[in-house]
Specification:
Blueprint lengths: L8 H11 L7 E4 L9 H16 L3 E6 L9 H13 L8 E3 L4 H13 L3 E4 L3 H8 L16 H13 L8 E4 L14 E5 L13 E3 L1 H11 L4 E5 L6 H11 L6 E5 L11 H9 L14 H7 L3 H11 L10 H15 L1 E3 L1 E2 L2 E6 L7 E7 L9 E7 L1 E5 L19 E4 L4 E9 L5 E9 L16 E2 L2 E2 L4 E8 L26 E8 L11 E4 L3 E5 L10 E7 L3 H6 L1
Parallel strand pairs: 1-2, 2-3, 8-9, 10-23, 12-18, 16-19, 21-25
Antiparallel strand pairs: 4-5, 5-6, 6-7, 11-22, 12-15, 13-14, 15-20, 16-17, 17-18, 21-22, 23-24, 24-25
Helix pairs in contact: 2-11, 7-8, 11-12
Bound molecules: adenosine-5'-triphosphate and magnesium ion.
Length: 556
Protein backbone atom coordinates (compact mmCIF):
# COMPACT_ATOMS: atom_id res chain seq x y z
CA UNK A 1 0.00 0.00 0.00
CA UNK A 2 1.18 3.48 -0.75
CA UNK A 3 1.94 5.94 2.00
CA UNK A 4 -0.68 8.28 3.42
CA UNK A 5 0.58 11.27 1.47
CA UNK A 6 0.12 9.50 -1.82
CA UNK A 7 -3.27 8.03 -1.14
CA UNK A 8 -6.00 9.56 -3.23
CA UNK A 9 -9.31 10.63 -1.74
CA UNK A 10 -11.13 7.43 -2.63
CA UNK A 11 -8.50 5.29 -0.92
CA UNK A 12 -8.82 7.56 2.09
CA UNK A 13 -12.61 7.10 2.18
CA UNK A 14 -12.22 3.34 2.00
CA UNK A 15 -9.51 3.31 4.67
CA UNK A 16 -11.84 5.22 6.98
CA UNK A 17 -14.77 2.91 6.22
CA UNK A 18 -12.71 -0.17 6.92
CA UNK A 19 -11.27 1.28 10.11
CA UNK A 20 -14.80 2.08 11.29
CA UNK A 21 -15.90 -1.46 10.55
CA UNK A 22 -18.47 -0.28 8.01
CA UNK A 23 -17.49 -3.05 5.61
CA UNK A 24 -15.44 -6.21 5.85
CA UNK A 25 -14.85 -6.55 2.14
CA UNK A 26 -14.53 -3.89 -0.50
CA UNK A 27 -16.70 -4.49 -3.57
CA UNK A 28 -16.46 -2.16 -6.53
CA UNK A 29 -17.84 -2.46 -10.03
CA UNK A 30 -17.16 -1.34 -13.57
CA UNK A 31 -20.55 -0.88 -15.26
CA UNK A 32 -20.22 -0.09 -18.97
CA UNK A 33 -23.25 0.28 -21.16
CA UNK A 34 -22.58 -2.08 -24.08
CA UNK A 35 -23.33 0.53 -26.73
CA UNK A 36 -19.81 1.02 -28.01
CA UNK A 37 -16.19 0.02 -27.54
CA UNK A 38 -14.30 1.05 -24.43
CA UNK A 39 -11.95 4.02 -24.62
CA UNK A 40 -9.01 5.21 -22.59
CA UNK A 41 -11.38 7.10 -20.26
CA UNK A 42 -12.98 3.78 -19.41
CA UNK A 43 -9.48 2.42 -18.86
CA UNK A 44 -9.06 4.97 -16.09
CA UNK A 45 -12.25 3.74 -14.45
CA UNK A 46 -11.26 0.09 -14.94
CA UNK A 47 -7.83 0.63 -13.40
CA UNK A 48 -9.41 2.49 -10.50
CA UNK A 49 -12.15 -0.02 -9.71
CA UNK A 50 -10.22 -3.21 -10.35
CA UNK A 51 -7.14 -1.65 -8.78
CA UNK A 52 -8.99 -0.90 -5.53
CA UNK A 53 -10.38 -4.43 -5.43
CA UNK A 54 -6.86 -5.80 -5.77
CA UNK A 55 -5.42 -3.42 -3.23
CA UNK A 56 -8.02 -4.25 -0.59
CA UNK A 57 -8.35 -7.90 -1.57
CA UNK A 58 -11.98 -7.36 -2.37
CA UNK A 59 -13.67 -7.90 -5.68
CA UNK A 60 -14.66 -5.86 -8.68
CA UNK A 61 -17.75 -6.76 -10.65
CA UNK A 62 -17.94 -6.40 -14.38
CA UNK A 63 -21.51 -5.41 -15.07
CA UNK A 64 -23.07 -4.80 -18.44
CA UNK A 65 -25.43 -1.91 -17.84
CA UNK A 66 -27.82 -3.08 -20.50
CA UNK A 67 -31.11 -1.55 -19.39
CA UNK A 68 -31.64 0.33 -22.64
CA UNK A 69 -33.17 -2.10 -25.14
CA UNK A 70 -32.43 -0.36 -28.40
CA UNK A 71 -28.73 0.39 -28.46
CA UNK A 72 -26.90 -2.62 -27.19
CA UNK A 73 -25.14 -5.30 -29.17
CA UNK A 74 -23.35 -8.55 -28.49
CA UNK A 75 -20.31 -7.30 -30.41
CA UNK A 76 -19.87 -4.61 -27.77
CA UNK A 77 -20.25 -7.05 -24.88
CA UNK A 78 -17.50 -9.24 -26.35
CA UNK A 79 -15.17 -6.32 -26.99
CA UNK A 80 -15.66 -4.98 -23.45
CA UNK A 81 -14.69 -8.31 -21.93
CA UNK A 82 -11.68 -8.60 -24.20
CA UNK A 83 -10.49 -5.09 -23.35
CA UNK A 84 -10.81 -5.50 -19.58
CA UNK A 85 -8.87 -8.77 -19.77
CA UNK A 86 -6.25 -7.24 -22.02
CA UNK A 87 -5.70 -4.47 -19.49
CA UNK A 88 -4.81 -7.25 -17.08
CA UNK A 89 -7.89 -7.45 -14.87
CA UNK A 90 -10.06 -10.37 -13.87
CA UNK A 91 -13.65 -10.25 -12.63
CA UNK A 92 -13.56 -13.95 -11.65
CA UNK A 93 -17.12 -15.14 -10.96
CA UNK A 94 -18.43 -11.61 -10.88
CA UNK A 95 -19.90 -11.02 -14.28
CA UNK A 96 -23.38 -9.49 -14.25
CA UNK A 97 -25.99 -8.16 -16.58
CA UNK A 98 -28.27 -5.40 -15.37
CA UNK A 99 -31.10 -6.78 -17.51
CA UNK A 100 -31.16 -9.89 -15.34
CA UNK A 101 -32.50 -7.66 -12.57
CA UNK A 102 -35.55 -6.45 -14.49
CA UNK A 103 -37.91 -8.58 -12.39
CA UNK A 104 -36.50 -7.27 -9.13
CA UNK A 105 -36.45 -3.71 -10.36
CA UNK A 106 -40.05 -4.00 -11.42
CA UNK A 107 -41.02 -5.49 -8.05
CA UNK A 108 -39.23 -2.62 -6.35
CA UNK A 109 -41.15 -0.15 -8.46
CA UNK A 110 -44.39 -1.75 -7.25
CA UNK A 111 -43.05 -1.50 -3.72
CA UNK A 112 -42.43 2.22 -4.21
CA UNK A 113 -46.02 2.66 -5.40
CA UNK A 114 -47.25 0.79 -2.35
CA UNK A 115 -45.20 3.06 -0.14
CA UNK A 116 -46.89 6.02 -1.79
CA UNK A 117 -43.52 7.01 -3.27
CA UNK A 118 -44.23 6.54 -6.95
CA UNK A 119 -47.08 7.32 -9.32
CA UNK A 120 -48.01 6.89 -12.92
CA UNK A 121 -48.00 10.17 -14.80
CA UNK A 122 -49.83 10.71 -18.08
CA UNK A 123 -48.36 14.06 -18.99
CA UNK A 124 -46.57 14.26 -22.32
CA UNK A 125 -42.80 14.61 -22.33
CA UNK A 126 -43.19 18.27 -23.14
CA UNK A 127 -45.63 18.85 -20.31
CA UNK A 128 -43.36 17.07 -17.88
CA UNK A 129 -40.60 19.46 -18.86
CA UNK A 130 -42.92 22.42 -18.53
CA UNK A 131 -44.21 21.31 -15.13
CA UNK A 132 -40.66 20.75 -13.95
CA UNK A 133 -40.01 24.41 -13.32
CA UNK A 134 -36.51 25.85 -13.26
CA UNK A 135 -33.85 26.95 -10.84
CA UNK A 136 -35.87 29.97 -9.74
CA UNK A 137 -39.33 28.45 -9.77
CA UNK A 138 -40.61 25.31 -8.15
CA UNK A 139 -42.34 22.75 -10.32
CA UNK A 140 -46.04 22.05 -10.72
CA UNK A 141 -47.62 18.81 -9.59
CA UNK A 142 -48.75 16.31 -12.19
CA UNK A 143 -52.56 15.82 -12.08
CA UNK A 144 -52.06 12.20 -10.99
CA UNK A 145 -49.44 12.96 -8.34
CA UNK A 146 -51.91 12.26 -5.57
CA UNK A 147 -53.71 9.35 -7.14
CA UNK A 148 -54.39 6.43 -4.80
CA UNK A 149 -52.01 3.52 -4.42
CA UNK A 150 -54.66 1.25 -5.98
CA UNK A 151 -55.05 3.47 -9.02
CA UNK A 152 -51.29 3.69 -9.45
CA UNK A 153 -50.83 -0.05 -9.10
CA UNK A 154 -53.53 -0.60 -11.72
CA UNK A 155 -52.06 2.00 -14.05
CA UNK A 156 -48.53 0.58 -13.73
CA UNK A 157 -49.96 -2.86 -14.40
CA UNK A 158 -51.52 -1.55 -17.61
CA UNK A 159 -48.22 0.09 -18.56
CA UNK A 160 -46.45 -3.19 -17.98
CA UNK A 161 -48.98 -5.15 -20.04
CA UNK A 162 -48.42 -2.86 -22.97
CA UNK A 163 -51.85 -1.24 -22.94
CA UNK A 164 -50.43 2.23 -23.49
CA UNK A 165 -48.39 3.44 -26.40
CA UNK A 166 -44.84 4.68 -25.95
CA UNK A 167 -44.78 8.11 -24.38
CA UNK A 168 -48.34 7.88 -23.05
CA UNK A 169 -47.41 7.10 -19.47
CA UNK A 170 -44.37 6.97 -17.20
CA UNK A 171 -43.76 5.97 -13.62
CA UNK A 172 -42.30 8.73 -11.49
CA UNK A 173 -40.82 8.79 -8.04
CA UNK A 174 -42.79 11.05 -5.70
CA UNK A 175 -40.25 13.23 -3.94
CA UNK A 176 -40.36 17.01 -4.03
CA UNK A 177 -41.46 19.25 -6.90
CA UNK A 178 -39.92 22.25 -5.13
CA UNK A 179 -36.49 20.74 -4.58
CA UNK A 180 -33.57 22.95 -5.61
CA UNK A 181 -32.11 19.78 -7.11
CA UNK A 182 -33.96 19.23 -10.38
CA UNK A 183 -33.22 15.51 -10.21
CA UNK A 184 -35.37 15.31 -7.08
CA UNK A 185 -38.44 16.80 -8.75
CA UNK A 186 -40.26 13.53 -9.22
CA UNK A 187 -37.85 11.93 -11.69
CA UNK A 188 -39.15 9.44 -14.23
CA UNK A 189 -38.13 5.93 -13.20
CA UNK A 190 -39.90 3.74 -15.76
CA UNK A 191 -40.91 4.40 -19.33
CA UNK A 192 -42.63 2.44 -22.06
CA UNK A 193 -40.42 1.05 -24.81
CA UNK A 194 -41.91 -1.48 -27.16
CA UNK A 195 -38.57 -2.79 -28.21
CA UNK A 196 -36.79 -6.12 -28.32
CA UNK A 197 -34.03 -6.52 -25.75
CA UNK A 198 -30.94 -8.61 -26.55
CA UNK A 199 -31.24 -10.53 -23.28
CA UNK A 200 -34.89 -10.43 -22.22
CA UNK A 201 -36.37 -10.49 -25.72
CA UNK A 202 -39.97 -9.24 -25.84
CA UNK A 203 -40.76 -9.93 -22.21
CA UNK A 204 -40.85 -6.28 -21.23
CA UNK A 205 -42.36 -3.17 -22.68
CA UNK A 206 -41.45 -1.04 -19.69
CA UNK A 207 -37.79 -0.32 -18.97
CA UNK A 208 -36.17 1.34 -15.94
CA UNK A 209 -34.39 4.66 -16.33
CA UNK A 210 -30.66 4.79 -15.63
CA UNK A 211 -31.00 6.81 -12.42
CA UNK A 212 -33.42 4.27 -10.99
CA UNK A 213 -31.65 1.16 -12.24
CA UNK A 214 -28.12 2.00 -11.27
CA UNK A 215 -28.45 2.30 -7.48
CA UNK A 216 -30.53 -0.87 -7.43
CA UNK A 217 -27.93 -2.81 -9.45
CA UNK A 218 -25.30 -1.66 -6.97
CA UNK A 219 -27.46 -2.59 -3.99
CA UNK A 220 -28.43 -6.02 -5.35
CA UNK A 221 -24.78 -6.86 -5.84
CA UNK A 222 -23.70 -5.56 -2.45
CA UNK A 223 -21.36 -2.99 -3.93
CA UNK A 224 -19.69 -1.03 -1.13
CA UNK A 225 -18.23 1.86 -3.11
CA UNK A 226 -19.95 2.88 -6.34
CA UNK A 227 -17.50 5.07 -8.18
CA UNK A 228 -18.66 7.28 -11.01
CA UNK A 229 -17.72 10.50 -12.75
CA UNK A 230 -18.44 14.01 -11.45
CA UNK A 231 -21.54 14.64 -13.57
CA UNK A 232 -23.35 12.22 -11.30
CA UNK A 233 -22.78 14.25 -8.18
CA UNK A 234 -26.19 15.92 -8.58
CA UNK A 235 -27.78 12.49 -9.00
CA UNK A 236 -26.44 11.27 -5.67
CA UNK A 237 -29.39 12.58 -3.55
CA UNK A 238 -31.75 10.46 -5.65
CA UNK A 239 -29.39 7.48 -5.43
CA UNK A 240 -29.49 7.73 -1.65
CA UNK A 241 -33.22 8.50 -1.53
CA UNK A 242 -34.05 5.38 -3.48
CA UNK A 243 -31.98 3.01 -1.35
CA UNK A 244 -33.29 4.62 1.83
CA UNK A 245 -36.91 4.53 0.72
CA UNK A 246 -36.74 0.90 -0.36
CA UNK A 247 -34.62 0.12 2.68
CA UNK A 248 -32.32 -2.12 0.68
CA UNK A 249 -30.07 -4.31 2.83
CA UNK A 250 -26.95 -2.94 1.16
CA UNK A 251 -26.34 0.80 1.01
CA UNK A 252 -23.56 1.41 -1.49
CA UNK A 253 -21.85 4.76 -1.27
CA UNK A 254 -21.62 6.74 -4.48
CA UNK A 255 -18.29 8.52 -4.90
CA UNK A 256 -17.53 10.81 -7.81
CA UNK A 257 -14.16 11.50 -9.43
CA UNK A 258 -13.04 13.56 -12.41
CA UNK A 259 -13.34 11.87 -15.77
CA UNK A 260 -10.39 11.63 -18.09
CA UNK A 261 -10.27 14.09 -20.96
CA UNK A 262 -7.43 13.90 -23.42
CA UNK A 263 -6.03 16.46 -25.82
CA UNK A 264 -6.53 16.02 -29.58
CA UNK A 265 -9.29 13.48 -29.22
CA UNK A 266 -12.89 12.94 -28.26
CA UNK A 267 -14.31 10.39 -25.90
CA UNK A 268 -18.03 10.49 -26.43
CA UNK A 269 -19.18 7.06 -27.51
CA UNK A 270 -21.83 8.66 -29.69
CA UNK A 271 -19.24 10.65 -31.64
CA UNK A 272 -16.86 7.71 -31.85
CA UNK A 273 -19.71 5.63 -33.27
CA UNK A 274 -20.31 8.34 -35.87
CA UNK A 275 -16.66 8.23 -36.93
CA UNK A 276 -17.04 4.48 -37.44
CA UNK A 277 -20.40 4.64 -39.21
CA UNK A 278 -19.32 7.46 -41.49
CA UNK A 279 -16.15 5.50 -42.31
CA UNK A 280 -13.87 8.33 -41.27
CA UNK A 281 -11.83 5.65 -39.54
CA UNK A 282 -11.50 1.97 -40.44
CA UNK A 283 -13.44 0.79 -37.39
CA UNK A 284 -13.60 0.98 -33.60
CA UNK A 285 -10.09 -0.45 -33.50
CA UNK A 286 -8.59 1.97 -35.99
CA UNK A 287 -5.16 2.74 -34.50
CA UNK A 288 -6.04 6.45 -34.38
CA UNK A 289 -9.08 5.89 -32.17
CA UNK A 290 -8.82 6.55 -28.41
CA UNK A 291 -10.43 3.16 -27.88
CA UNK A 292 -8.61 0.44 -25.96
CA UNK A 293 -8.82 -1.77 -29.05
CA UNK A 294 -7.39 1.06 -31.15
CA UNK A 295 -4.50 1.57 -28.75
CA UNK A 296 -3.87 -2.18 -28.72
CA UNK A 297 -3.77 -2.35 -32.51
CA UNK A 298 -1.54 0.69 -32.59
CA UNK A 299 0.99 -1.17 -30.43
CA UNK A 300 0.27 0.13 -26.94
CA UNK A 301 0.99 -2.28 -24.11
CA UNK A 302 -1.42 -2.88 -21.22
CA UNK A 303 1.35 -1.79 -18.84
CA UNK A 304 1.68 1.56 -20.62
CA UNK A 305 -2.06 2.24 -20.45
CA UNK A 306 -2.13 1.30 -16.76
CA UNK A 307 0.89 3.48 -16.08
CA UNK A 308 -0.73 6.40 -17.83
CA UNK A 309 -3.91 5.99 -15.75
CA UNK A 310 -1.79 5.98 -12.62
CA UNK A 311 0.07 9.09 -13.74
CA UNK A 312 -3.04 11.19 -14.38
CA UNK A 313 -4.29 10.30 -10.91
CA UNK A 314 -7.67 10.41 -9.19
CA UNK A 315 -9.04 13.83 -8.33
CA UNK A 316 -12.26 15.79 -8.04
CA UNK A 317 -11.29 18.47 -10.54
CA UNK A 318 -12.10 18.10 -14.21
CA UNK A 319 -9.10 18.75 -16.40
CA UNK A 320 -7.64 18.02 -19.76
CA UNK A 321 -4.74 15.58 -19.82
CA UNK A 322 -2.01 15.92 -22.41
CA UNK A 323 -1.93 12.99 -24.84
CA UNK A 324 1.86 13.38 -24.65
CA UNK A 325 1.62 11.71 -21.23
CA UNK A 326 0.05 8.66 -22.80
CA UNK A 327 2.70 8.66 -25.51
CA UNK A 328 5.41 9.03 -22.93
CA UNK A 329 4.10 6.01 -21.04
CA UNK A 330 4.22 3.75 -24.06
CA UNK A 331 7.60 5.05 -25.22
CA UNK A 332 9.01 4.34 -21.80
CA UNK A 333 7.64 0.82 -21.70
CA UNK A 334 8.64 -0.06 -25.25
CA UNK A 335 12.12 1.30 -24.71
CA UNK A 336 12.65 -1.44 -22.16
CA UNK A 337 10.91 -4.24 -23.96
CA UNK A 338 11.08 -3.92 -27.72
CA UNK A 339 13.76 -5.21 -30.05
CA UNK A 340 15.52 -2.76 -32.34
CA UNK A 341 15.65 -3.17 -36.08
CA UNK A 342 16.71 -1.02 -38.97
CA UNK A 343 14.17 0.36 -41.41
CA UNK A 344 14.49 3.16 -43.94
CA UNK A 345 11.33 5.11 -44.61
CA UNK A 346 12.55 7.64 -47.16
CA UNK A 347 15.34 5.77 -48.93
CA UNK A 348 18.20 6.95 -51.08
CA UNK A 349 20.99 4.65 -52.29
CA UNK A 350 24.40 4.67 -50.60
CA UNK A 351 27.14 3.05 -52.71
CA UNK A 352 30.42 2.05 -51.06
CA UNK A 353 32.99 2.51 -53.80
CA UNK A 354 35.72 0.33 -52.31
CA UNK A 355 33.48 -2.51 -51.10
CA UNK A 356 33.81 -5.74 -53.17
CA UNK A 357 31.14 -6.10 -55.85
CA UNK A 358 28.78 -9.00 -55.16
CA UNK A 359 29.96 -9.58 -51.59
CA UNK A 360 27.40 -9.97 -48.79
CA UNK A 361 28.52 -10.30 -45.21
CA UNK A 362 26.45 -10.80 -42.07
CA UNK A 363 26.99 -8.32 -39.28
CA UNK A 364 25.95 -8.94 -35.74
CA UNK A 365 23.42 -6.50 -34.30
CA UNK A 366 22.30 -6.33 -30.70
CA UNK A 367 18.53 -6.63 -30.37
CA UNK A 368 18.05 -4.38 -27.38
CA UNK A 369 20.88 -2.45 -25.75
CA UNK A 370 18.54 -1.96 -22.76
CA UNK A 371 18.15 -5.70 -22.35
CA UNK A 372 21.20 -7.94 -22.96
CA UNK A 373 18.94 -11.00 -22.62
CA UNK A 374 17.24 -10.02 -25.89
CA UNK A 375 20.30 -11.37 -27.74
CA UNK A 376 21.46 -10.47 -31.20
CA UNK A 377 20.73 -11.09 -34.87
CA UNK A 378 22.55 -11.01 -38.18
CA UNK A 379 22.07 -8.19 -40.65
CA UNK A 380 23.23 -8.50 -44.27
CA UNK A 381 25.66 -5.82 -45.49
CA UNK A 382 26.76 -5.15 -49.06
CA UNK A 383 28.11 -2.58 -51.49
CA UNK A 384 24.73 -0.96 -52.13
CA UNK A 385 22.77 0.17 -49.12
CA UNK A 386 19.73 2.34 -48.58
CA UNK A 387 19.81 5.19 -46.09
CA UNK A 388 17.38 7.96 -45.14
CA UNK A 389 17.42 10.84 -47.58
CA UNK A 390 17.68 13.22 -44.63
CA UNK A 391 20.97 11.61 -43.58
CA UNK A 392 22.79 13.23 -46.51
CA UNK A 393 23.28 16.92 -47.21
CA UNK A 394 25.43 18.06 -50.07
CA UNK A 395 25.85 21.47 -48.48
CA UNK A 396 25.61 20.83 -44.76
CA UNK A 397 23.94 23.10 -42.27
CA UNK A 398 25.77 23.91 -39.03
CA UNK A 399 26.41 20.98 -36.73
CA UNK A 400 25.39 18.46 -39.35
CA UNK A 401 27.16 15.28 -38.29
CA UNK A 402 25.74 12.92 -40.86
CA UNK A 403 26.79 12.28 -44.46
CA UNK A 404 28.21 15.22 -46.34
CA UNK A 405 31.19 15.22 -48.67
CA UNK A 406 34.42 14.63 -46.73
CA UNK A 407 32.70 13.65 -43.43
CA UNK A 408 33.07 10.25 -41.77
CA UNK A 409 30.09 8.59 -40.02
CA UNK A 410 29.32 5.23 -38.49
CA UNK A 411 26.90 2.84 -40.13
CA UNK A 412 25.07 1.25 -37.21
CA UNK A 413 26.55 -2.20 -36.43
CA UNK A 414 28.68 -1.83 -39.58
CA UNK A 415 31.65 0.27 -40.60
CA UNK A 416 32.90 3.85 -40.68
CA UNK A 417 32.27 5.36 -44.09
CA UNK A 418 33.46 8.65 -45.52
CA UNK A 419 31.23 10.46 -47.97
CA UNK A 420 32.79 11.16 -51.36
CA UNK A 421 29.89 12.91 -53.07
CA UNK A 422 26.59 12.19 -54.77
CA UNK A 423 24.91 11.55 -58.10
CA UNK A 424 21.92 13.62 -59.19
CA UNK A 425 19.25 13.19 -61.84
CA UNK A 426 18.43 15.75 -64.53
CA UNK A 427 16.13 17.57 -62.11
CA UNK A 428 18.93 17.95 -59.57
CA UNK A 429 17.53 15.39 -57.16
CA UNK A 430 20.08 13.23 -55.36
CA UNK A 431 19.68 9.65 -56.54
CA UNK A 432 22.82 8.15 -55.08
CA UNK A 433 25.21 9.02 -52.27
CA UNK A 434 28.79 7.72 -52.62
CA UNK A 435 31.31 6.82 -49.96
CA UNK A 436 34.30 4.64 -49.10
CA UNK A 437 34.55 2.42 -46.06
CA UNK A 438 37.33 1.53 -43.65
CA UNK A 439 37.46 -2.31 -43.38
CA UNK A 440 39.25 -2.00 -40.04
CA UNK A 441 36.14 -0.51 -38.40
CA UNK A 442 33.91 -3.59 -38.71
CA UNK A 443 31.30 -3.66 -35.96
CA UNK A 444 31.36 0.11 -35.66
CA UNK A 445 34.57 0.97 -33.83
CA UNK A 446 37.89 2.21 -35.04
CA UNK A 447 40.97 0.35 -33.75
CA UNK A 448 42.96 3.62 -33.77
CA UNK A 449 40.41 5.29 -31.48
CA UNK A 450 39.15 7.60 -34.21
CA UNK A 451 35.77 9.12 -33.27
CA UNK A 452 32.81 10.02 -35.45
CA UNK A 453 29.95 12.24 -34.36
CA UNK A 454 27.17 10.64 -36.36
CA UNK A 455 25.70 7.14 -36.54
CA UNK A 456 23.12 6.38 -39.18
CA UNK A 457 20.95 3.36 -39.91
CA UNK A 458 20.74 1.54 -43.21
CA UNK A 459 19.52 -1.59 -44.97
CA UNK A 460 21.18 -3.60 -47.72
CA UNK A 461 19.23 -2.89 -50.91
CA UNK A 462 19.23 -6.39 -52.38
CA UNK A 463 18.06 -8.09 -49.19
CA UNK A 464 15.71 -5.41 -47.89
CA UNK A 465 12.02 -6.12 -47.58
CA UNK A 466 9.51 -3.71 -49.06
CA UNK A 467 6.66 -3.15 -46.63
CA UNK A 468 3.70 -0.91 -45.93
CA UNK A 469 4.24 1.48 -43.05
CA UNK A 470 1.36 3.44 -41.57
CA UNK A 471 2.38 6.67 -39.93
CA UNK A 472 -0.30 7.69 -37.47
CA UNK A 473 -0.75 11.08 -35.99
CA UNK A 474 -3.35 12.70 -33.81
CA UNK A 475 -6.93 12.13 -34.87
CA UNK A 476 -7.94 15.75 -34.37
CA UNK A 477 -6.05 18.93 -35.13
CA UNK A 478 -7.46 20.87 -32.18
CA UNK A 479 -6.02 20.46 -28.72
CA UNK A 480 -9.13 20.90 -26.60
CA UNK A 481 -12.04 19.23 -28.31
CA UNK A 482 -14.47 20.44 -25.66
CA UNK A 483 -14.46 23.84 -27.27
CA UNK A 484 -15.84 23.60 -30.75
CA UNK A 485 -16.06 27.01 -32.44
CA UNK A 486 -19.66 28.26 -32.79
CA UNK A 487 -21.49 26.83 -35.74
CA UNK A 488 -18.77 24.46 -36.78
CA UNK A 489 -18.93 20.69 -36.86
CA UNK A 490 -16.44 18.71 -34.78
CA UNK A 491 -15.72 16.61 -37.87
CA UNK A 492 -14.11 19.58 -39.55
CA UNK A 493 -11.48 19.44 -36.82
CA UNK A 494 -10.29 16.00 -37.89
CA UNK A 495 -6.57 16.03 -38.68
CA UNK A 496 -6.34 15.44 -42.45
CA UNK A 497 -2.90 13.87 -42.10
CA UNK A 498 -3.67 11.55 -39.19
CA UNK A 499 -2.76 8.60 -41.42
CA UNK A 500 -0.04 8.50 -44.00
CA UNK A 501 0.57 5.11 -45.60
CA UNK A 502 4.02 4.78 -47.18
CA UNK A 503 6.35 2.02 -48.38
CA UNK A 504 9.44 1.39 -46.34
CA UNK A 505 12.57 -0.73 -46.70
CA UNK A 506 13.33 -3.01 -43.80
CA UNK A 507 16.05 -5.45 -42.84
CA UNK A 508 15.01 -9.02 -43.75
CA UNK A 509 14.50 -10.16 -40.15
CA UNK A 510 11.48 -7.85 -39.97
CA UNK A 511 9.66 -9.74 -42.70
CA UNK A 512 9.27 -12.76 -40.45
CA UNK A 513 7.78 -11.15 -37.35
CA UNK A 514 4.31 -12.27 -36.28
CA UNK A 515 1.33 -9.91 -36.36
CA UNK A 516 1.10 -7.85 -33.18
CA UNK A 517 4.88 -7.75 -32.66
CA UNK A 518 6.23 -4.52 -31.23
CA UNK A 519 9.61 -3.29 -32.44
CA UNK A 520 11.70 -0.17 -32.54
CA UNK A 521 12.87 1.14 -35.90
CA UNK A 522 16.19 2.61 -34.84
CA UNK A 523 16.21 6.39 -34.75
CA UNK A 524 12.58 6.52 -35.97
CA UNK A 525 10.07 5.18 -33.53
CA UNK A 526 8.13 2.25 -32.17
CA UNK A 527 6.07 0.17 -34.54
CA UNK A 528 3.73 -2.77 -34.26
CA UNK A 529 2.79 -5.21 -36.99
CA UNK A 530 -0.88 -4.81 -37.77
CA UNK A 531 -3.03 -7.68 -36.53
CA UNK A 532 -5.61 -7.36 -39.28
CA UNK A 533 -3.79 -6.41 -42.47
CA UNK A 534 -0.44 -8.18 -42.12
CA UNK A 535 0.08 -11.30 -44.20
CA UNK A 536 2.69 -13.98 -43.94
CA UNK A 537 5.97 -12.47 -45.18
CA UNK A 538 4.21 -9.14 -45.79
CA UNK A 539 3.84 -7.36 -42.51
CA UNK A 540 2.14 -3.99 -42.28
CA UNK A 541 3.73 -1.73 -39.67
CA UNK A 542 1.73 0.69 -37.54
CA UNK A 543 3.66 3.50 -35.96
CA UNK A 544 2.84 3.41 -32.27
CA UNK A 545 4.78 6.52 -31.36
CA UNK A 546 7.80 8.42 -32.58
CA UNK A 547 11.06 7.98 -30.70
CA UNK A 548 10.95 11.50 -29.38
CA UNK A 549 8.07 13.82 -28.77
CA UNK A 550 8.28 15.75 -32.02
CA UNK A 551 5.36 17.93 -30.94
CA UNK A 552 7.12 19.16 -27.83
CA UNK A 553 10.10 20.19 -29.97
CA UNK A 554 7.90 21.98 -32.47
CA UNK A 555 6.33 24.01 -29.67
CA UNK A 556 9.64 24.93 -28.03
P1 LIG B 1 -21.44 8.03 -22.89
O1 LIG B 1 -20.15 8.49 -23.55
O2 LIG B 1 -22.35 7.35 -23.83
O3 LIG B 1 -22.06 9.05 -21.98
P2 LIG B 1 -20.08 6.65 -20.79
O4 LIG B 1 -18.75 7.07 -21.28
O5 LIG B 1 -20.61 7.15 -19.51
O6 LIG B 1 -21.14 6.85 -21.91
P3 LIG B 1 -20.45 4.01 -19.76
O7 LIG B 1 -20.47 2.75 -20.51
O8 LIG B 1 -21.68 4.39 -19.01
O9 LIG B 1 -20.06 5.09 -20.81
O10 LIG B 1 -19.20 4.07 -18.79
C1 LIG B 1 -18.85 3.03 -17.94
C2 LIG B 1 -18.05 3.57 -16.80
O11 LIG B 1 -16.89 4.23 -17.27
C3 LIG B 1 -18.83 4.57 -15.98
O12 LIG B 1 -18.72 4.19 -14.62
C4 LIG B 1 -18.18 5.88 -16.24
O13 LIG B 1 -18.17 6.66 -15.09
C5 LIG B 1 -16.76 5.49 -16.65
N1 LIG B 1 -16.23 6.45 -17.61
C6 LIG B 1 -16.73 6.77 -18.81
N2 LIG B 1 -16.00 7.72 -19.41
C7 LIG B 1 -14.98 8.01 -18.57
C8 LIG B 1 -13.88 8.93 -18.62
N3 LIG B 1 -13.68 9.73 -19.67
N4 LIG B 1 -13.04 8.95 -17.56
C9 LIG B 1 -13.24 8.14 -16.52
N5 LIG B 1 -14.25 7.27 -16.41
C10 LIG B 1 -15.12 7.20 -17.42
MG1 LIG C 1 -22.75 6.38 -18.96
Amino acid sequence: MSTEAHRHFIQQIIDTDLAAGKHVKVITRFPPEPNGYLHVGHAKSICLNFGLALEYQGSCHLRMDDTNPTKEEVEYVDSIQEDVRWLGFDWGQHYYQASNYFDRMHADAIQLIKLGKAYVCFLSQEQIREYHGDEKHGGKASPTRDASVEDNLAAFERMTRGEYNEGKAVLRAKIDMASPNMHMRDPVIYRIRKAHHHNTGDKWCVYPMYDYAHPLEDAYEGITHSICTLEFEVHRPFYDWLLRTLDTPAKPQQIEFARLNLTYTIMSKRNLLELVQEKRVSGWDDPRMPTISGLRRRGYTPAAVRKFCETVGITKHNSLSDVALLEHAVRDDLNKTSSRFMAVLDPVRLVIENYPEGQVELLEAQNNPEDPAAGSRQVPFSKTLLIERADFMEIPEKKYFRLTPGQEVRLRWGYFVTCTGCVKDAAGKVVEVRCTYDPATRGGDSPDGRKVKGTIHWVSEAQAGDVEVRLYDRLFAQEDMKHIPEGSDWRTLLNPTSLQAIRGKVEPALLAVAPGTRVQFERIGYFCTDTKDSQSGQPVFNRTVTLKDSWAKAKA
